[in-house]
């Protein structure tokens, strides 16, 4: 991996003084990830280019048990600029980064005409422009294409930056933004990274329009670190940064819909007088939290097919810190809706909140048999998206979530629910959830099934 | 002589010093005896600590329950002088449907005191012993009333010393009878159809002077077994009774009671019963019979045993079926289950009780044959089968021949009685899978070996199986992972044919087939004549492209396989294949993982070489660096060429082909033991039938005793891989079930991958000598074991499928293959 710095300041060869690397030598440095070289392919009074090249040793990289691509034995680390190159840069050009120069102190503080090239960098042209342009760079980012057999562009760019900046500013920009574009770090990100970020970001990061994104990516998406860094940057309490890639849907509307959905489910449970309830497909436990807050629910069972989701739910609900009596109300079990599970029998109600659409249609009969036929709770609450409403989501093509196997119209949902109710001896009623549109209905649809009381024989 | 049932909970009753422990030691094995003293010691470190009694008995009852659940005789050595303590024992016995038995050791108090004083650890007062003695006197009268089915009282030391134990079999235990049997469904007074059926089965009927059949016998000594409900609704219940009673008396038949016999007996005993469900017809028919016959019939019915365990425990016959926990047990609820089945407490729209589908949950190893619920067609569900085909309602009278499991039916002569509700519509029975069939830590003994599936691997597989895979009823097999050949020491090679051949030779294989290894996506295809249930799935059981492409693809395979269905005489076939090109399914992966690295490398290295060239032009020495970069550049080009070879343009199904290499199974059959010549010839037939859809698999057969033959194959491999081929798979010629001398399965194949191909696995620069030296230390043991285990599980799944075993039996193995894929193994192997 490689970056070059070119200046047309006269005499251009002063670049050697600023970098503290003599142009007539090839400088070699041992760095933790391989060997770094500094050399000058072009030196004249008019134009001087210094190159920093890092010859990555994949063995050493692997031996470091680094954070990325561990499972991959073939990776782009030897070729693409990344935190590895930034690390080498800080080691090799330490004084230049600080803006110090014994031989040319004034020049170090003077903006110079600079051209910087990073021939291979992970990221998009658009993001590269967003990050560098506000700092006074003229950005030329060319996406590197795949070979014609594959077609299209790879996720790498050839980046050229032109501008008049101090060398120190330029190097600090690269030091911070190369790993940000690459969006990975080859080492464990500890709290002292905040200080590195603030030091290198001095004078430019606080005013950068994308400082939130920069801080988050630089700090390896660690929320606590990011918040602290942003607070320091602003010198005041910053808001929690929103998650970067939340979803395809507008954030405000989505959150409120989730709340409305939860409230609608809780209302249905209240209506049927349930006290012992199953949340089937509980995921991270959004509904479980609400159920636990309400003391009328004497027993709350969350099930999910993903043991990872259950771990998250346990953490969110602070299961290990709940007092014994509270803890006793809650159970988290791994279970799959396509298998019968005796543990789920005998409950007042079961909730399938935004669950059925994650199952392939041919597997639905298995879910029906296990929930309605086998677990057989007194009531079942099912919510699912209403496909008709999707026209209101601007820019939404296809379905609302990449894992949705289907999204039903109201007619389709009601047809399924009615058939299921009939087969298993339930009554079913329907209601809308969320903003109601006259022609398309509501964003979410809800079905409330109640077991038909049957004559009990002696 | 003390008679006790083979399976019982035996309570020894006696005061301290009466010799209970000695008696227990004399007559029972140490593990059969649970002593309260011992349990006190376990929970309190002191056998005489009476304050620990409650906890000690709690533990004792728990262990007793475990033993009884497993069907083991259990003896409780405690004083058992208090009614509340004995009540607990009766409860434990009832919970497991075994008979509680009491053996009372009644010795003079003086003798007991003498013995007690002789023991240094017994320090209690004589008054305590006196009280015990009083309690014993009180107990003697009440034991039978408390629920002990047998009470043996041994009076005095002489009687105790002289006693011996004799074990009685339960009435239902007929494991020694091995048949062969003809199990006959609900007859309901259809005497004519019964005669026809017995004759069809080869029985010779004997008639009385009036021409009525009074008995029947099979010339080959077969035994008929009636599942009950001989009477009611039909035209001649007395005639059926006469024939069956005769056969049972002659030893030509066994009979279990049905609920209709039960009710008839109650009526004949003068009890008040509702005259419904065809009972009035029976009573009317019986009124024409002499009183002696009616009395005989009553005695016969009252003597019937609720169920039988036959043929070494492999066969259970009960009128309404019997769950595993009740088999070979005796209690009121066992009898009730056998007669009526289990109801849910609900009633259906016809006012009839809703029956709990116990067969769906059945996981026992004994086949359960029953009647009771009329159905249109008998079908095995989880190793159970109902034979009531509603003869009296105009259906048929059905028999199951055992052990051949053949069904024999004769149609009803007419509808003798109008059904209350229609027979359930035919359809695939709900075999339903239970979460406990697959989750938790599981030990599987699958015939080809044993495997333990870790709970966390099962948990991971559950998510894949439940969220992404096809219906388990479709997903009857998954391809096993494959180990590479032993590591080659040849210069420049990590894998080479020489080691592949050596591996096979070491396993005792003499002849192998080298099959071209297609670089695409593994595809398992199930196609049938009628297209019903056809599917194509990936190595993790997922559908391939989605229905819009999978369906037309399957239609084409189906058309091409038409000839094979006829030739093999099968309605469906399971085909193992590779779907090509790789990019058809893995385009995203190729772009993300492989081509990205290629693009980055091909852009970075020339830029770096430019810098080096500029520096060199300035007179600086950068030769070593330049050479290194040039080597890297060549390596990244080689790497790019390697993955590029497997990228071909496709548009929908255009450009997609299948390379079949084995026909694994069909309905009722597994082809795993056919040799690869057979498999490949069928594959070739598919290629011939649709050369556009199918890609042939190139192959070379090698005689491992002939170096020339090996050399030829090696040359073939070199040419194949030089042209961009992935490599080859070396398989024992004789098929998939080859075993070595010790009977362990041989690897069904080892892969031998090409030198260039391995760049995309081990990295562009893996061919450098220092890298190869390091990579040669790779450990293949885990991968080999995993490959063998998954292969064996798959073979067993095919066997069980062919044998018509229940879905859960096939699924637990297929699931285990998927779970095994979560084992941590070097992904490069």
From TrEMBL, chain A:
In what residue span(s) does the Hen1 N-terminal domain sit? 1-233
Q: Which InterPro entries match?
A: 3'-RNA_MeTfrase_Hen1_bac (IPR024026), Hen1 (IPR026610), Hen1_N (IPR024740), Hen1_N_sf (IPR038546), Methyltransf_12 (IPR013217), SAM-dependent_MTases_sf (IPR029063)
Using the record's annotation, list all stretches that form the Methyltransferase type domain: 278-380
In this entry, which stretches build a coiled coil?
none
Q: Which UniProt keywords apply?
A: Magnesium, Metal-binding, Methyltransferase, RNA-binding, RNA-mediated gene silencing, S-adenosyl-L-methionine, Transferase
Catalytic activity field: small RNA 3'-end nucleotide + S-adenosyl-L-methionine = small RNA 3'-end 2'-O-methylnucleotide + S-adenosyl-L-homocysteine + H(+)
Provide a GO biological process annotation.
Answer: RNA methylation
Tell me which species this is from: Paractinoplanes atraurantiacus
- Spell out the Pfam families in the cross-references: Hen1_L, Methyltransf_12
GO MF terms, alphabetically ordered: metal ion binding; RNA binding; small RNA 2'-O-methyltransferase activity
Q: Which family does it belong to?
A: Belongs to the methyltransferase superfamily. HEN1 family.
Q: Report which superkingdom the organism of origin falls in.
A: Bacteria
Q: What is this protein called in UniProt?
A: Small RNA 2'-O-methyltransferase
The EC number(s) this enzyme carries = 2.1.1.386
Q: Which cofactors are required for activity?
A: Mg(2+)
From TrEMBL, chain B:
- SUPFAM superfamilies linked to this entry: DNA ligase/mRNA capping enzyme, catalytic domain, Metallo-dependent phosphatases, P-loop containing nucleoside triphosphate hydrolases
- Domain spans labelled Polynucleotide kinase-phosphatase ligase: 460-824
Could you confirm whether the keyword Transferase appears in this record? yes
The superkingdom listed in its UniProt entry is Bacteria
For the keyword Chaperone, the answer is no
User: A Gene Ontology MF term for this entry?
Assistant: kinase activity
Q: Which GO terms describe its cellular component?
A: cytoplasm
Keyword terms? Kinase, Transferase
List, for all copies, the residue spans of the domain called Calcineurin-like phosphoesterase: 180-375
- This chain belongs to the protein called Polynucleotide kinase-phosphatase
């Amino acid at each position: 991996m490689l970056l070059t710095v070119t200046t047309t300041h006269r005499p251009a060869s002063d670049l050697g003084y600023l970098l503290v690397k003599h142009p007539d030598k090839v400088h070699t440095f041992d760095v933790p990830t391989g060997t770094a070289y500094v050399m000058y392919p072009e030196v004249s009074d008019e134009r001087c280019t210094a190159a920093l090249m890092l010859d990555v040793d994949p063995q050493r990289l692997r031996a470091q048990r680094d954070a990325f691509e561990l499972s991959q034995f073939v990776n782009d680390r030897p070729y693409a600029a990344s935190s590895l190159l930034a690390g080498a840069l800080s080691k090799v050009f330490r004084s230049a980064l600080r803006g110090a120069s014994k031989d040319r102190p004034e020049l170090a503080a003077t903006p110079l005409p600079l051209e910087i090239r990073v021939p291979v960098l992970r990221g998009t042209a658009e993001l590269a422009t967003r990050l560098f342009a506000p700092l006074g760079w003229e950005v030329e980012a060319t996406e590197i294409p795949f070979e014609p057999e594959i077609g299209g562009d790879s996720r790498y760019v050839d980046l050229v930056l032109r501008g008049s900046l101090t060398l120190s500013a330029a190097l600090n920009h690269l030091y911070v933004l190369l790993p940000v574009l690459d969006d990975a770090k080859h080492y464990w990100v500890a709290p002292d990274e905040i200080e590195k970020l603030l030091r290198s970001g001095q004078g430019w990061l606080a005013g950068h329009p994308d400082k939130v994104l920069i801080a988050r990516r630089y700090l390896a998406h660690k929320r606590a670190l990011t918040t602290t860094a942003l607070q320091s940057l602003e010198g005041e309490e910053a808001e929690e940064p929103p998650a970067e890639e939340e979803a395809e849907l507008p954030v405000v509307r989505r959150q409120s819909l989730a709340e409305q959905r939860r409230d609608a489910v809780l209302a249905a449970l209240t209506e049927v007088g349930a006290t012992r309830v199953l949340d089937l497909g509980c995921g991270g436990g959004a509904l479980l939290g609400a159920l636990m807050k309400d003391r009328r629910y004497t027993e709350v069972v969350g099930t999910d097919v993903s043991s990872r989701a259950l771990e998250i739910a346990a953490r969110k609900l602070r299961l290990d810190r709940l007092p014994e009596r509270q803890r006793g109300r809650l159970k988290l079990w791994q279970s799959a809706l396509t298998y019968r599970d005796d543990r789920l029998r005998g409950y007042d109600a079961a909730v399938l909140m935004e669950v059925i659409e994650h199952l392939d249609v041919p597997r639905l009969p298995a879910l029906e048999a296990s929930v309605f036929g086998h677990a057989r709770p007194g009531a079942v609450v099912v919510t699912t998206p209403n496909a008709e409403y999707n026209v209101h989501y601007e820019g939404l093509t296809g379905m609302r979530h990449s894992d949705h196997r289907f999204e039903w119209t109201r007619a389709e949902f009601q047809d399924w629910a009615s058939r299921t109710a009939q087969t298993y001896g339930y009554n079913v009623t329907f209601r809308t959830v969320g903003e109601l549109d006259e022609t398309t209905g509501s964003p979410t649809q809800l079905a409330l099934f109640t077991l038909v009381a049957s004559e009990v024989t002696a | 002589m003390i008679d006790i049932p083979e399976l019982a909970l035996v309570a020894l009753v006696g005061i301290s010093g009466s010799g209970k422990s000695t008696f227990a030691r004399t007559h029972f094995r140490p593990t059969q005896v649970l002593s309260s003293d011992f349990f006190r010691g376990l929970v309190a470190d002191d056998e005489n600590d009476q304050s620990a009694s409650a906890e000690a008995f709690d533990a004792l009852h728990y262990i007793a329950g475990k033993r009884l659940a497993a069907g083991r005789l259990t003896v409780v050595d405690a004083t058992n002088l208090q009614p509340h303590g004995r009540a607990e024992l009766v409860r434990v016995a009832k919970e497991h449907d075994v008979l509680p038995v009491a053996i009372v050791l009644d010795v003079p108090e003086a003798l007991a005191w003498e013995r007690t004083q002789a023991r240094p650890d017994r320090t209690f007062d004589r008054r305590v012993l006196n009280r015990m003695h009083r309690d014993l006197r009180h107990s003697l009268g009440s034991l039978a009333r408390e629920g002990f089915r047998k009470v043996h009282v041994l009076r005095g030391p002489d009687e105790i010393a002289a006693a011996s134990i004799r074990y009685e079999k339960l009435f239902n235990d007929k494991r020694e009878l091995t048949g062969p049997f003809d199990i006959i469904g609900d007859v309901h007074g259809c005497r004519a159809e019964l005669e026809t059926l017995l004759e069809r089965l080869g029985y010779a009927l004997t008639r009385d002077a009036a021409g009525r059949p009074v008995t029947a016998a099979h010339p080959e000594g077969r035994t008929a077994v009636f599942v009950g409900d001989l009477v009611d609704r039909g035209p001649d219940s007395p005639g059926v009774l006469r024939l069956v009673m005769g056969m049972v008396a002659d030893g030509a038949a066994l009979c279990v009671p049905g609920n209709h016999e039960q009710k008839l007996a109650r009526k004949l005993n003068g009890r008040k019963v509702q005259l419904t469900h065809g009972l009035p017809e029976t009573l009317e028919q019986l009124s024409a019979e002499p009183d002696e016959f009616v009395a005989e019939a009553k005695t016969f019915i009252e003597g019937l045993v609720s169920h039988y365990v036959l043929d070494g425990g492999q066969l259970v016959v009960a009128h309404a079926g019997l769950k595993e926990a009740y088999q070979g047990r005796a209690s009121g609820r066992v009898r009730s289950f056998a007669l009526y089945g289990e109801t849910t407490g609900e009633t259906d729209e016809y006012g009839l009780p809703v029956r709990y589908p116990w067969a769906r949950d059945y996981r026992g190893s004994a086949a359960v044959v029953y009647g009771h619920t009329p159905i249109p067609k008998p079908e095995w569900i989880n190793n159970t089968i109902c034979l009531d085909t509603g003869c009296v309602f105009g259906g048929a009278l059905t028999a199951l021949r055992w052990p051949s499991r053949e069904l024999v039916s004769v149609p009803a002569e007419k509808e003798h009685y109008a059904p209350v509700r229609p027979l359930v519509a035919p359809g695939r029975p709900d075999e339903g899978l239970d979460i406990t069939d697959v989750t938790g830590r599981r030990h599987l003994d699958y015939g080809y070996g044993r495997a333990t599936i870790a709970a966390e691997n099962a948990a991971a597989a559950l998510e894949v199986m439940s969220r992404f895979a096809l219906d388990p009823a479709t997903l009857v097999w998954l391809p096993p992972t494959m180990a590479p050949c032993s590591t080659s020491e040849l210069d420049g090679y990590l894998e080479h044919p020489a080691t592949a051949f050596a591996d096979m030779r070491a396993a005792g294989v003499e002849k192998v087939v080298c099959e071209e290894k297609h670089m695409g996506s593994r595809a398992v295809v199930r196609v049938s004549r009628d297209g019903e249930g056809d599917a194509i799935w990936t190595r993790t059981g997922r559908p391939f492209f989605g229905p819009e492409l999978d369906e037309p693809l399957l239609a084409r395979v189906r058309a091409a396989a038409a000839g094979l269905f006829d030739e093999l005489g099968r309605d469906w076939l399971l085909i193992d294949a590779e779907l090509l090109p790789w990019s058809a399914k893995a385009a995203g992966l190729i772009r993300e993982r492989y081509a990205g690295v290629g693009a980055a490398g091909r852009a970075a290295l020339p830029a770096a070489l430019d810098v080096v060239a500029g520096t060199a032009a300035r007179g600086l020495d950068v030769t070593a660096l330049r050479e290194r970069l040039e080597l890297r550049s060549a390596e990244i080009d080689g790497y790019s060429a390697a993955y590029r070879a497997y990228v071909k343009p496709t548009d929908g199904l255009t450009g997609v082909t299948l390379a079949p290499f084995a026909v694994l199974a069909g309905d009722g059959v597994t082809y795993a033991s056919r040799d690869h010549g057979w498999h490949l010839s069928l594959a070739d037939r598919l290629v011939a039938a649709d050369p556009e859809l199918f890609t042939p698999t190139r192959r070379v057969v090698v005689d491992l005793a002939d170096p020339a033959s090996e050399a030829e194959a090696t040359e073939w491999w070199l040419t194949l891989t030089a042209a961009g081929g992935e490599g080859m798979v070396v398989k024992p010629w004789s098929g998939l079930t080859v075993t070595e001398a010790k009977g362990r399965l041989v690897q069904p194949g080892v892969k031998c991958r090409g030198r260039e191909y391995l760049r995309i696995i081990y990295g562009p620069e893996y061919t450098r000598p220092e890298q190869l030296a390091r990579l040669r230390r790779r450990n293949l043991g885990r991968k080999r074991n995993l490959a063998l285990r998954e292969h064996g599980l798959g073979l067993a799944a095919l066997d069980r499928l062919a044998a018509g075993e229940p879905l859960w039996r096939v699924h637990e193995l297929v699931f285990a293959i998927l779970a095994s894929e979560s084992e941590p193994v070097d992904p490069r192997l």
